[in-house]
Amino acid sequence: MSGGAAAWIGRGGLALLGAALLAVPFVLPELGYGFWVNIVTEILIWSLLAASVNLLFGYVGLLSFGQALFFGFGMYGATLAVIHWEAGFWTGLLAGTLAATAMAAVAGALAVRLTWHYFAIITVVFSLIFYFAAMSNKTLTGGDDGLSFSAPAVFDMAGVTVTLADPLAQYFSVLGVVAACYAIMGVVVRSPLGLAFAAVRENDRRARLIGIDVYRTRLVAFVLAGALAGVSGALFAFFGRYASASYMVYHVSGEAVVWAIVGGIGTLLGPLFGTALLIVFRELVSTVWENYLFAVGGLTVLVVMFAPLGLAGLWRGALGRLTAPRAAPAEAPADPVAPSADARAVPGGR
Amino acid sequence: MLSVAGLTADIGRIPVLKGVSISVAPGETVALLGRNGVGKTSTLRAVLGLLRRTGGSVSYQGQDLGGLAPHRLAALGLGYVPQGRGIFPLLTVEDNLCLGLKGKPPADLFAELYERFPRLAERRRQAAGTLSGGEQQILAIARCLIMRPSLIMLDEPTEGIMPKLVSQIRTEIAAIAKRGIAVLIVEQNLRTALRLADRVYLMERGQVVHEATPAALRETPDTVHRYLGVAL
Predict the structure, then answer these.
(1) Interface of chain A against chain B, CB under 8 Å?
(2) Is A263 inside a domain boundary?
(3) pTM to 2 decimals?
(4) Least CB–CB distance from B70: residue in A209, A341, A342
(5) CB neighbours of A66 closer than 8 A, spacing ≥ 6?
(6) pLDDT tens string A130-162
(7) Ranges in chain B annotated CATH 3.40.50.300
(8) In this prediction, does ipTM exceed 0.85?
(9) Which positions, given as ranges, span the membrane (chain A) (predicted)?
(10) Is A279 among the domain residues?
(11) Between B187 and which of A233, A334, A350, B193 could a Cys-Cys bridge form, CB atoms 3.0 to 4.6 Å apart?
């Protein structure tokens, strides 16, 4: 088999994933696992937060521990729009995304001047400042108690109103938005801008010398990642009909980093797999073992040490072994540990 | 085209350039020669703004480069192939070539480039880091050419390259010059420099100490021995 076969298997896998996600709200309740439809919805939503970490860390080389800030802005943008302007799902989603994007533009203008641990620290600092501000400004945010609202309309036309209270409407609204976000991300990372991201990640000095504005490239990535986190936050607010400042704390960002790393940084769908694995793990284990996070920590260490490209890397490796011509050695990148250019691909193809 | 006058630069508190003045005319090939550590690479880095300039001036096509960010120089037509190639080893050959371009590359551009560099065509889907040193150098030069520069600065292009490929790289540089692109080359290999250059600057301790044509330099072997420590 050849690289073409690998691409076909990858496309097949992607189609299978799409079909499975479409079938979830019909099949799981029939099997008596209706509760898991909500878990899948939650996985889809949180995976966007992990994807925002991945966009920055995996594609541009900036490790952010502050994505919860933009998640919170998305959450409150949507919630406040629904409460004060009686916005529907789509308007609220737009308000949340715009709030997070604007915040990301402001924070990013300062943060992307720094790299490595300095960047990580400043993102935590930004997140903490706004976390404490949100916790103390109870009039606006409700603080730790948060704000709640009723399920808004997803569709309201010609006398027909469908709200998020309809489980199918909620699931497919979330799935549609999440799929659109991944599709947009896929287009971005394969565009000249995505190539500039990779160049900046690999060597910012060299990138500068071939005419890439490193600051602007990092800022664009930061704002895009902020927007993704904002979409995630807005969807989560709609999912729970609730927004709380407690979601803006840094350990929410930390969880997203872990999901992204376990799933596979520098791969498009890795964060989805990582989020799925760890949320399912949480649901199964947390009921019997309170300190299940020890196991999550151990798993993360193992992944970093033995599978630096995470679940997506393992999938791609298996696919590569399956499809590589036996006679000719596979053309591998020089550094097997670092994310390769090929790491920009969807696991197993595009 | 490129005019450097009285350029001074420090690394930390140590002055590495002490008033360097050089010029490159359109279509001319100029070589900077000197022993290790005399300031050849530092001169290129200071021209590009990668090394903080403390004095003097650098202008390119009449425009003062003082205060201009390094990423703006490529748009002015100033290409640079750094020491150690400066490619992106984890990206594919084709991705490396596309990096210099805004938007989608025109197909004929690649066709022309691959006709000229068939080895790159064969390996265009391969990670650039898996190419040999000589092929990486060719890739670095090709990537620079794809941006259609009017001046290319090459830092030690034959360093660490197997002798068989040195002549190929020399041929490529000569071909660049024939196309009317000015070349400023820093080179330890005296033979290569004298064969390619129209003019040569000799450097010592952060200063230009001698300027000559290759023919004139060949007639003064004492000067070559004094500043480069080698016999012609």
Answers:
(1) 192, 195-196, 198-199, 202-203, 205-214, 331-335, 338-342
(2) no
(3) 0.83
(4) A209
(5) A107, A111, A122, A123, A124, A125, A126, A127, A250, A253
(6) 999 999 988 898 888 889 988 888 888 877 888
(7) 2-77+149-164+177-228
(8) no
(9) 6-28, 35-57, 63-83, 90-110, 116-134, 171-198, 219-244, 256-280, 292-315
(10) no
(11) B193
